[in-house]
Specification:
Length: 282
C-alpha cells in the first residue's frame, strides 16, 4: 500500500466543510414501490457548494438535491434517477456554486420496498432509519466553504476547528446532525437549534455561537437588532412556552448574562422583566 501526501507552503485560502441533510423519521410502508421523503437545510450565510454525496440503502431508487432561493425560486442541483447502493458516488462540481444566505437546500429520496426490487431483503416489513444495510437512510451530504475562512485561526479558524471536532465526537451515528439524544443537554440544545426543528447541523452550531458572541455584547444590547435577538433567544430557550425561564432552561454559556435581568431575584426570568431591562439600555 502506498499513500501520497502533499504539503503546501501556504495554508489553504478556504476550508471545506461537510454537512449532512437527513430525515431520521422515515417510515417506509410494506410493499410501497415509490415512497418518498424530503428534508431541508437552511443556509444562514453565503456559501460556495463544491460537491454532493447521497446515501441510501438497499431500497433507495432515486435521489435529488434542490436549491430553494430566498425569493421562492427552485433549481435542481443534482438529479440521480437510478440510485444504486453498490455505486455510491461523490459528485464534484466543475466550479463552486454560490448559494445566498436565506436559501434552503432540499434533499429528496425515493424508495422501493416492493417485491419487484431484487435487492429488497423483506418487502413485508415497515422500514425505518437505522445503521444496518437492511434498515434505511435518507442522507445527503454537501461540501461547501465560506469565503474568508482560513486555517490560521482568528475569526474562523481554530475555534471552528475545535467545534467541528467536538461535533463529530457527539455525532454518534456520524450522519452530520446532532439530535437531542446525542446532545443530552436540553438548554444547550435549544441554544444551538436556531430553526427549532429538533436537529443541529455543524453550520447551525457555528452560526448560533457566532450570533451569541455578536449580539450579547454591551454595545449590541443598546441597538434594536441586539434587543430583538435577545427576545427571540428568550423564545427559543423557553421550551415550554410559558413566558418564563427557569434555571434548567438556561444554558451555562448565557445563563449568567440572562439571570442578571431577574429583577425581583426569585430565580425565574419573565419576558416582561427582560423587556424592562432592555428598555433601560440606551
Amino acid at each position: 500500500t502506498r499513500l501520497g501526501v502533499k504539503f503546501l507552503e501556504e495554508p489553504p485560502a478556504d476550508e471545506i466543510t461537510v454537512a449532512g441533510i437527513a430525515d431520521h423519521r422515515i417510515s417506509i410502508p410494506p410493499h410501497a414501490s415509490n415512497y418518498s421523503s424530503s428534508k431541508t437545510l437552511s443556509v444562514p450565510g453565503d456559501v460556495y457548494l463544491t460537491g454532493f454525496l447521497p446515501h441510501m440503502h438497499l431500497r433507495g431508487k432515486a435521489f435529488r438535491y434542490d436549491l430553494i432561493e430566498p425569493g421562492g425560486g427552485r433549481e435542481t442541483l443534482l438529479d440521480i434517477p437510478a440510485y444504486d447502493f453498490n455505486w455510491q458516488l461523490k459528485y464534484e462540481l466543475a466550479e463552486p456554486r454560490l448559494v445566498a444566505a436565506g436559501s434552503k437546500i432540499e434533499v429528496t429520496g425515493w424508495f422501493d420496498n416492493s417485491a419487484a426490487n431484487p435487492a429488497n431483503p423483506d418487502p413485508s416489513k415497515t422500514i425505518k432509519w437505522g445503521p444496518q444495510t437492511d434498515d434505511e437512510m435518507l442522507l445527503g451530504y454537501i461540501e461547501y466553504y465560506r469565503t474568508g475562512t482560513d486555517s490560521k485561526g482568528s475569526a474562523t479558524g481554530d475555534s471552528d476547528a475545535g467545534l467541528a471536532s467536538r461535533f463529530r465526537q457527539l455525532d454518534k451515528d456520524q450522519d452530520g446532525i446532532l439530535t437531542g439524544k446525542e446532545l443530552d443537554q436540553p438548554a444547550l440544545f435549544a441554544l444551538l437549534d436556531s430553526d427549532r426543528n429538533g436537529e443541529i447541523t455543524p453550520t447551525e452550531a457555528v452560526e448560533s455561537l457566532r450570533d451569541l458572541a455578536t449580539n450579547l455584547g454591551e454595545k449590541s444590547l443598546r441597538t434594536r437588532a441586539g434587543k430583538d435577538y435577545v427576545l427571540k433567544l428568550f423564545e427559543r430557550l423557553d421550551r415550554d412556552s410559558d413566558g418564563r425561564l427557569v434555571r434548567d432552561e438556561l444554558a451555562p454559556q448565557i445563563g449568567e448574562k440572562i439571570r442578571r435581568a431577574d429583577l425581583n431575584g426569585d430565580g425565574v426570568l419573565t419576558r416582561s422583566e427582560l423587556e424592562r431591562v432592555l428598555k433601560m439600555r440606551r
